[in-house]
Design goal:
Blueprint (H helix, E strand, L loop, with lengths): L1 H22 L29 E4 L3 H17 L5 E5 L2 H8 L6 E4 L5 H11 L3 E5 L5 H9 L3 E7 L3 H9 L1 H10 L2 E4 L2 H9 L7 E3 L11 H14 L5 E7 L4 H14 L4 E6 L5 H10 L4 E3 L12 E3 L6 H6 L3 E4 L14 H5 L4 E3 L7 H9 L4 E2 L3 H13 L1 H17 L3 H10 L1
Parallel strand pairs: 1-2, 1-4, 2-3, 4-5, 5-6, 6-7, 8-9, 8-12, 9-11, 10-11, 12-13, 13-14
Length: 421
Amino acid sequence: MLARTFYTLALLLLAPVLLIGLYKKKPNKPNFGTRWKEHFGLTPKLKHVKHPVWIHAVSVGESILASSIIKELKQHSPELPILVTTTTSTGAEQIAKLGDLVEHRYMPIDFNFAIRRFLKVVQPNQLIIIETELWPNTLHQVDKQGIDISVINARLSEKSFRNYAKVQALFDSISLSVTRWLCQSDADAQRFIRLGVSAEKINVTGSIKFDIKIEDYVDQQGKALREQLGSQRPIWVAASTHKGEDEQVLKAHENILLKHPDALLILVPRHPERFDSVFELCQIQNFHTIRRTADQPVESSAQIYLADTMGEMLKLLKASDVCFMGGSLIGHKVGGHNVLEPAALNIPTITGPSFFNFKEITESLIEQNGIWVCQDSEQLAKQVNKLLSNPEKGEQLATNACQLVEQNRGALSQTINLLQK
């Protein structure tokens, strides 16, 4: 109780900064409009849903994962009412693609008054949290009402473990509220146990990310995009890049063009508010750049295709010969992104040295020779050149990665079974 009081006071002091970051207008970022009130618990009544399963997915990545969970739940129980909350407007945009399968509301800020207002309107019968979005006051208020709480696809890096250990009393409050923890790996489970979570509450299900399903339309649209970009030219994609990383990718592309003058880079910035600034960066460095939203022919002289759209990653990956997964060349700021998407699409993949957010998965791929790790832009260029010049090497790398994905499928069905119990 005392730990949560100190936490709430700290949150009160930090809230203005957090809200400014959340509401600040940025290019290509969806606006909250009048729905900002939902962050304070002023939640509109649900249209058709009564006592729903409440799924919380903080932003885009979790929302995409939530979509596969929702579709699986609906297959088992078509009439099951589902409410999804996100914190960000970009996450809400992803959930909107599910149409009438769910209703969406914004997650209230973690103040007791806001959570109580939200629960009074929504009246969920259980809460499912994707990965490790743990808000102490929310969990306390939900548990106080006797509502079942599951954390699924749960992960806990060594860095996060050390951070939680510094506020052990607060984490104890969290762990008492949670009904079950469905962990991605044994290592994650052991870290939770070291923090004091009862082993009886923990199951290791594997990562739901391995259960990625490639729809037929992705294959078709990816091939159509490849034809549009140039079926005979070498194409590589830098996926989910961050500020400070684009410069390194462009430097690598300069070197790649020396060996493959007709090569095309599909550049996919992680955040939509950076689309314009990345385009300007490409122009300043004199690359012939075409924006995807420009809807114009891609000439053979084009050197960069800037993917300034959201929710099309699989299609863009499918249109490429080699993938570099971003968030991994900028020290320990990000920790990488999902390397299983290109693996499932049979695309040879390279990552930078910082992949702590996908440590177990990436290390398994390294062990199986299913991914290459570059240390800097110079090595990235050499590895991309090698894979573009030797398709058989890329094919073997991609095959090994795809096999690992197939071997580890099943986490989604196991998670659904445990939730239904």
